[in-house]
Protein: Sulfotransferase family protein
Organism: Nitrosomonas communis
Amino acid sequence: MQTYRQKTQHSRFPDFFVVGAPRCGTTSLCRYLARNPQICFSQPKETYFFNQLDNDLSEKELQRNYLDRYFAHFTAGCRAVGEGTVTYLYQPEAIKRIQQFNPNARFIVLVRNPLAMLPSYHQRLRYLLQEDEPDFEKAWALQSTRARGELVPKLCLDARLLAYSEIAKFGAQMQQLYAITERERTHVIVFDDLVADPLGVYQRALEFLHVDYDGQTRFERKYQSRMYRYRWLQRLLYLPVMRHGKVIDTLQRRLYHYNQDNSKRRGLISRLTAWNIIKESPAQLSPRMAAIVRKSLQGDIQLLSSLINRDLSSWLDTKKDYVTYRLLPYWKKAISVSTKVGYQRCKFSPKLE
């Protein structure tokens, strides 16, 4: 009987995974990586394959359901293959399954100040119809109730998505990841660095993946904060696709087609999706709510700081609660960034992830 690795050693099975965290710049980073000609990145970015895998696969099933579906654009010139499902960070079983198929897999994790990340994450859940409470403070207060299975939105696919305090515990998630895989196979990126020096962050990610720098100097932002115009159309676009009684995708994702750099081709579905989008920034946390979140996550931030050997005390500074959050939408000025060959001009557009 073949081992997991025997099934994948001669295929285009991924050797790196961007596993989280949500609303921390993962979509932007994955777009930059997908444009590198030496990298084959999954289309779409998030496959959720190892979240859903609950039984052994034959080589034929792995080829058909994973490799052919998400990596059909693979070419012989690719030196690295990757995907970017951010929910893997919260499911240790998914990481363990990945390692069964590829013991040498590498993992990239992006983290962000929770006081800036959580309002953005809450709004993203609303956009995806996973959250029906528009007020973040009320949604936070509902966590224990929803953990008991009560007052969970009808369209929510997994109540764990609504556990805001757990989602933002990056220290606990990193500790869990380090317990499963070797630290040298994990690369952590702080969102603040991605904002301040996108080129440097990109180049260090390439070094971690043993891929050559391709000359990129323009790094756009994804996604700008958004909400939908019409709920009925949003429900249609994000209609769950079922297989054997399990949600495996959404109608929108299934009908999208992708360019080589992982951008979406202009088709009916993409036009409908774009038309139904309106710009809407997340509401800032009130001083009272910021204090509640800070108190809840203070120990975890300190844990993360020690794990990645990085001073994150500014995340707990009451005077800096909203600095990054306020400035990012207006980040329009080109910045100079150093490279191995000197200085280059690098534009970081104001689109929010």
Q: What stands out?
A: Residues 207 and 337 are 17 Å apart (CA to CA). The domain at 8-117+163-220+297-346 is CATH 3.40.50.300 (Rossmann fold). The longest strand covers residues 106-111. The mean pLDDT is 84.
